[in-house]
Design goal:
Elements: H1 2-36, E1 40-49, E2 54-65, E3 69-71, H2 77-83, H3 85-104, E4 114-118, H4 121-125, H5 129-138, E5 147-152, H6 160-173, E6 176-182, H7 189-194, E7 199-202, H8 204-207, H9 214-229, E8 233-237, H10 242-250, E9 255-257, E10 265-266
Parallel strand pairs: 2-4, 4-5, 5-6, 6-7, 7-8, 8-9
Antiparallel strand pairs: 1-2, 1-9, 1-10, 2-3
Helix pairs in contact: 2-3, 3-5, 5-6
This protein binds ligand C2E and magnesium ion (MG) (3 copies).
One magnesium ion binds next to loops.
């Protein structure tokens, strides 16, 4: 009986592996088709200063699938990274960002706002990455200094010299860079010193316990000081309550993003004239 039970478990396990593999194949073909059909949407969420004035927006991708409805990035970006679709997606996001900045250009209320987009490590690793960025920027009459690329600490784990070179090329284009989800990966101080980034984004996991946990508050303070030392702007993400906002202000955070101020909404709603 024990042996029969074991065989059953093996069979169930194999079936689950098969199901997962099939689901990945389905997701991939739907996504590839969705990209062609124009089902991707860029949403955006404001970033505010200490006076709650909007200073920029972050672009956050969504996929409106006829089969699946609104699909959040965590449900398809990893697959896009594994399969290379992220290159195409990344180009599209950059095009959208340029379109937004173009629409803001002649609007006195918006022409100084920055627009940030998220980059995958895989995009940065592509040999022609800087060229692609250059080509897309050249197709738009915008100030590249208003564009920011957000990268996670994962870009530091492999081939740091290459990452530094790529970020240097971007900087030469005029584009700024930001370290996203800061504090969740492991980045040593020596990395940070060598990395040409201009902004740190404190991860939401710190923000959510900064009020209740003295230890988290101390870490957050250290990150702020670290930012100061390297001359970086420090942004807190995922701010949901007034108490968090006050605490972060007192710790010296420069800018804020979170549901307290606004939720992400379709980028079309941020265009000038809308
Ligand atoms: P991220 O860049 O760290 O973005 C912040 C995430 O926190 C977003 O989730 C945002 O909607 C969410 N958020 C903002 N404020 C709050 C808040 O007050 N409370 C809570 N609970 N959440 C908040 P989202 O939009 O689901 O994006 C998840 C991740 O997907 C992003 O994390 C980013 O790493 C990735 N991503 C999004 N768009 C793109 C893209 O165009 N390209 C790439 N490569 N990755 C993207
Ligand atoms: Mg981000
Ligand atoms: Mg983040
Ligand atoms: Mg994140």
């Amino acid at each position: 009986a024990r042996r029969a039970g074991g065989q059953l478990r093996v069979r169930r396990f194999r079936q689950r592996m098969l199901d997962e593999a099939q689901e990945r194949v389905r997701l991939f073909s739907e996504l590839r088709r969705g990209i062609e059909q124009g089902e991707l949407r860029l949403f955006a969420q404001p970033i505010v200063d200490r006076d709650r004035r909007v200073i920029g927006e972050e672009g956050l991708i969504r996929w409106i699938s006829p089969q699946r409805g609104l699909v959040p990035p965590d449900a398809f970006i990893p697959l896009a990274e594994q399969t290379g679709l992220i290159i195409e997606i990344g180009d599209w996001v950059l095009e959208e960002a340029c379109r937004v900045l173009t629409s803001w250009k002649d609007d006195p209320a918006r022409r100084e706002l920055t627009f940030s987009i998220n980059l995958s490590e895989r995009q940065l690793r592509a040999d022609d990455f800087a060229e692609r960025v250059h080509r897309i920027l050249a197709g738009h009459d915008i100030s590249p200094g208003l564009l920011k690329f957000e990268l996670t600490e994962s870009v530091l784990h492999t081939d740091l010299d290459r990452t530094i070179r790529m970020l240097g090329l971007l900087r030469a284009e005029g584009v700024f860079a930001s370290l996203d989800d800061f504090g969740t990966g492991y980045s040593s101080l020596s990395y940070l010193r060598r990395l040409p980034v201009q902004q740190l984004k404190i991860d939401r996991s710190f923000v959510s316990s900064v009020v209740d946990d003295a230890h988290t508050a101390a870490i957050t303070q250290t990150i702020v000081q670290l930012g100061r030392t390297f001359g970086l702007q420090v942004v807190a993400e995922g701010v949901e309550t007034e108490e968090q906002f006050q605490a972060l202000c007192e710790l010296g955070v420069d800018a804020f993003q979170g549901y307290l101020f606004a939720r992400p909404r379709p980028v079309s709603e941020t265009l000038a004239g809308s």
